[in-house]
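User: For my dataset I need records formatted as: sequence, then structure tokens, nothing else. Please produce one.
Assistant:
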Amino acid sequence: MRVTRRWAIAGDGLVVRFAALLLLVAMLGACAVPASRPGMPPDAGAGAVVVDPLPGAEAARLPEALPEPAPEAPSIAPAALALATQSDQARAEGNLRLAGLQLERALRIAPRDAGLWNRLAQVRLEQQEFQQAERMADRSLQLGSVDRALSLSNWRIIARAREAAGDTEGARRALEEVRRLERALG
């Protein structure tokens, strides 16, 4: 009877596979981008030349008092915009449930869009879900702090939600914020 050593053949295949794996790791390692060193600009990688400014070059700098450009409104993804438009149509037809569902889908696409959170807060207010309306308006405030008109709309939703929920003191504070923003907008 003849006995074959299968483990030796399997072992040879294992060695070949291991060698191939090491070769692959070495090739991928060669493609890696080295991290920048402390004190170096982030774009100064290996082989980059960093030049110190010439003495007296500070006089040639631009004046520091240049106004910063106004922040651009974040562009909304086309799919989220389409869902928001469909939501507006459903809301106009009185279908608040569908309007809310479409806004929730839009927020899955663009979760940092303050306008979408504001729209959903308005829908929740109309559905008489006052706590959710307030939370969503607050989320919109957190995300869209530079847009005063949006902030005003959010504070109005918060005031109405608090008043409807029976929080008269909270509603009063929210109305004070509404008046302050109305004065600031003119």
